[in-house]
Amino acid sequence: MNEVSRKQHRTRRKRRLATLVGGVVTAVLGGLMFALPQQASAELPSDTVFYKDPDSQVARWLAANPSDSRRPLISQVIGDRPQGIWFANYEPSTVTQDVQAITGPAASAGQTPVLVAYMLPNRDCGGASAGGAPSFSAYDSWMDGFAAGLGDDPVVVILEPDSLALISCLGSQELADRNSSLSRAGRVIHQANPQAKVYYDAGHSAWNPAGTMADRLRAAGAAQNGDGIYSNVSNYRSTADEISFAKAVLNQLGGTAQGAVIDTSRNGRGPAADGEWCDPSGRGTGRAPTANTGDAQIDAFLWVKPPGEADGCAGSAGQFLPDIAYELAQNAEDPGGSGGTTNGGTTDGGTTDGGTTDGGTTDGGTTDGGTTDGGTTDGGTTDGGTTGGNGDGCDATYQVLNEWPNGFTGQVTISCDGSSLSGWQVTWTWPGNQQLTQTWNGSCSQSGAVVTCSSAPWNGTVPDGGSVTIGFNATYSGSNPPPTDIVLN
After folding, report:
1. Chain-centre distance for alpha carbon 159
2. Active site includes 162?
3. In 134, 417, 432, 436, which residue has its Cα 20 to 30 A from 156's Cα atom?
4. Which of 53, 98, 162, 201 is catalytic?
5. What span, in angstroms and rounded, lies between the C-alpha atoms of 138 and 115?
6. Which ranges of 226-347 would DSSP assign to H, the alpha helix?
7. Torsion sign, CA atoms 356, 359, 361, 362
8. Cα separation of 336 and 334, whole Å?
């Protein structure tokens, strides 16, 4: 696969460190470096309960935005699910305490944290998540400190995303050094905590062939020092494709003692039709995190990449964006609880029985500060919203959901009551100088002040009593008046 193709499939992320608690504990593993390799342990127990970080980015956003209309759905679908906790900032003096700040509370709760070690030199080959330790010796020392904080209770370690799938930028010596440090890392983690499960990078099903990944895993010591492999981290490939791919890699790696974990955090709708990997629109969260997979070779489905954190296009890599989180929640494969999309939910991308509940759209309109029962009538406006119909029982309501200096997030809700739509187009005219910068759940363009949005492949059907939404970000200067009209066709 050439360099361009690799970049198309490359994943990017940057994650904050866990809460810092100060102080430093020096690595205590030096005398153990030459122990015999750790044998791979049994698969994760199917009743494993994964740990939910109370200080995750989504948790902090939820706490800071109690009145946001998107909050209930984001909380239910994303905030209530355990996710990977990334260690991506090089702060070696505090890494032991940073890890302990997670593993201590998790152990007290009888739960298993999922920690992502992301610190190798030249990570992401200089891409959006470039960084890491300044040298391999510095990495090895950092890993000693990381391992020293793991405690002695169950913990899952996702070891260095992209480290083996993305090696195109490495010379032969740097690749050898990387393999040596990865092999050492698995050994050090197991020596520090024999209950730790260490998973090595296998990329994903649309990147490198299974045989190629098996060779790279073998060279990095995964067969001796790992408990298995992971696939699809920060990507969107379907669960079925990843299961088949992971099994193929395991079979070629040789041996049935190891298993695989699959990142299902954003693959509920599979990849974008055009193959876009960097913050594509129209995606949804996938299977909820669980170790009860029903497959002896698949140890768990995990949300390694926290949903709502950018890949590096819609925002800086790792930045939490509530608009992306909300769209992922709207399109969730498993909405959880009683919310999300129901009675047909996420199939065909549409929502039924009035759309999403608990902070989404209800009875064709939007609640919690939005319009209700189909929105305002006679083309009027409510709270900055504008409604226009097609005369056949369907209408479109424009709203500003969130506004900041010179920018805002908007939403158009298309609702039907007494009729239905099969394919739709909505147009509005801004009286100010607003300019679209990003859209999702529709194909939108702007010509002058006129914006035209057409249905996406998955949400063109709006049933009687149902609704769909288009979301967008836009800029402006001066004032941000609502559209003078909105037309639904």
Report:
1. 17
2. yes
3. 134
4. 162
5. 20
6. 239-253, 322-330
7. positive
8. 6
From the CB of residue 336, how many other CB atoms can be counted at a distance below 10 Å? 15
The CATH architecture one would assign to domain 347-488 is Sandwich (2.60)
Q: Which residues contact 13 (CB under 8 A, 6 or more apart)?
A: 86, 88, 118, 129, 161, 234, 305, 309, 311, 312, 317, 318
- Give the DSSP H/E element, type plus range, for residue 186: helix 172-192
**Composition of the chain by helix, strand, coil, percent to 5:** 25, 20, 55
> Concatenated DSSP letters for 278-309?
SS-SS----SPPBS--S-TTEEEEE--S-TTB
C-beta of residue 11 within 8 angstroms of C-beta of residue 233 = yes
List, for residues 207-244, the tens digit of each pLDDT value: 999 999 999 999 999 999 999 999 999 999 999 999 99
**CA gyration radius for the chain?**
24
Instruction: Tell me which residue of 86, 57, 87 sits closest to 74, measured CA to CA.
Output: 57
Kind and range of the H or E run holding 422: strand 421-422
Per-residue model confidence (pLDDT) at position 312: 87
Angle, helices 172-192 vs 136-148, to 10°: value is 10
- 325/361 Cα distance (integer angstroms): 16
Which residues of the chain are under the pLDDT cut of 70?
Answer: 1-42, 255-256, 337-391, 458
Helix (H) or strand (E) holding 396: strand 394-404
Catalytic site residue from 53, 68, 98, 124: 124
Longest alpha-carbon distance in the chain: 78
Non-local CB neighbours of 182 within 8 Å, separated by 6+ positions: 120, 159, 160, 163, 164, 200, 220, 221, 222
Q: Which CATH architecture has domain 3-330?
A: Alpha-Beta Barrel (3.20)
**How far is it, in rounded angstroms, from Cα 213 to Cα 164?**
7
Degrees to nearest 5, angle at CA 265 with 260 and 270: 90
Structure tokens at 253: 């790696």
Taking only the tens place, the pLDDT of each residue in 100-122 is: 999 999 999 999 999 999 999 99
Asked if 147 and 29 touch (Cβ cutoff 8 Å), the reply is yes
**What's the rounded Cα separation, in Å, for the pair 436 and 444?**
9
Strand partners, 461: 422
Instruction: Identify the burial level of 342 via C-beta atoms within 10 angstroms of its C-beta, where 0-12 means exposed, 13-18 middle and 19 or more buried.
Output: middle
Q: For 185-208, how does the pLDDT look when each residue is reduced to its tens digit (9 = 90+)?
A: 999 999 999 999 999 999 999 999
* Nearest C-alpha neighbor of 79 from the set 56, 102, 101: 56
Domain ranges of the chain: 3-330, 347-488
Place of tokens 């100088």: 433
Q: What is the pLDDT at residue 192? A: 98
